[in-house]
Automatic annotation (TrEMBL):
Pfam families: Acyl-CoA_dh_2 (PF08028), Acyl-CoA_dh_N (PF02771). SUPFAM superfamilies: Acyl-CoA dehydrogenase C-terminal domain-like (SSF47203), Acyl-CoA dehydrogenase NM domain-like (SSF56645). This is Acyl-CoA dehydrogenase. It comes from Streptomyces roseochromogenus subsp. oscitans DS 12.976. InterPro entries: Acyl-CoA_DH_C, Acyl-CoA_Oxase/DH_mid-dom_sf, AcylCo_DH-like_C, AcylCoA_DH/ox_N, AcylCoA_DH/ox_N_sf, AcylCoA_DH/oxidase_NM_dom_sf.
Amino acid sequence: MGEGVECQCDEGAPETWKGAPDLAAQVLCRARKAAPLLREAAAEIEDGRRLPDRIVDLLGNTGVWRACMPKAWGGPDLTSMEQVELLEILAQGDASAAWCSMIAMDSGIYSGYLDPVAVKEIYHDIDLITAGALFPTGTAEKVDGGYRISGRWRFASCISHADVLMASCIVHDNGVPVGDPVTGEPKQWRVFAARPDQFEIHDTWYTTGLRGSGSHDYSVKDLFVPESHAFTMSLPRQDRILLRTPDAIQRKMPGIPLGLARAAIDYAVDVAGGRRDRETGTPWTSDMRVHEVIGRCEMELHAARASVYTSLADQWEGFTTGKEDLRSERVTTALARYHAFQTARTIVQRLYDLLGGTAVYAAASPFDRWLRDVNTMCQHAVAQDAVLQMAGVVRLGGEPPNPVNPALAVSLPAAP
């Protein structure tokens, strides 16, 4: 689980790649070769508020879109730890590209909850891109053969390139919410898979950071979706370790702040090699103040990174050994995930302060973009204090409240 983006493998240069790889090691190797290209395109990605087509193709050839697809379908089937590493590598190139990758590669996760017959229709290619919101801000009225869904959803990262669009709804029957026969909850939360061209996409993504993720709103009214294209995250249809608990879509998320923090430290170290204190003339490489800042950042990043990978490995071991009660492991991974986001923000801010006035110029320093990116990603639900509250409730033997599905209560607090 190396932190650098350099790669000495035999995969060759990106322009020589022919087709996406089917092995995890190849995907990670190609990601290390792709990261410098993402870094070169970072300003273009941000200015365009979406990924350029050539970057979409690059990520596809890297194996990102198929990263979570099962081996039985020809996919590399990355473990949760490998998914984190993949995003960590990509984020060292560009955070928006990594964020799009994180969302789009959920194709291999969502497909594991769909009806097996519908999967062949929806995911006829393992390199398809998925976008969409998981939090249920829509309604689904039961009708013969399926549902009619209506609503408006936010934060659909990579929607401009999506092949499949997910929309989450609360199910109604004759206008009244119905209970969930799977979980026993009074409200039934379902996710619906459809085509992006069936929705209206709203150009709303004018934001502080992660501008290149193109996370626009989308809406629809009375769209018919067949029963087979609806699913619940509480009932996987594939017997895969990855799907043992419904937090699979979130386990990989800390790779992005970890990668961004790594890039920020490396950049600051490079800058320090040519800087002197303005008043004393002391080289930064000999300045104890600079030494302490860099050392503290390295310490905090390594601690946060170790927590993420160790907690995920413990959870994965529980999956593979068939452990029944995984609440403790899910709490630990949720806390490590939260801590990774918060630590990355602290590191980027500290280094931004260290570099002083030069860091404010967007054309001269990536820190302007990094500071905005890390603050924007920390607005996500997984980085909110509600995670701490839910973890505390579980640790004290209680059941954390969740307005949708208690199965996700530890890892999916309500959207802010």
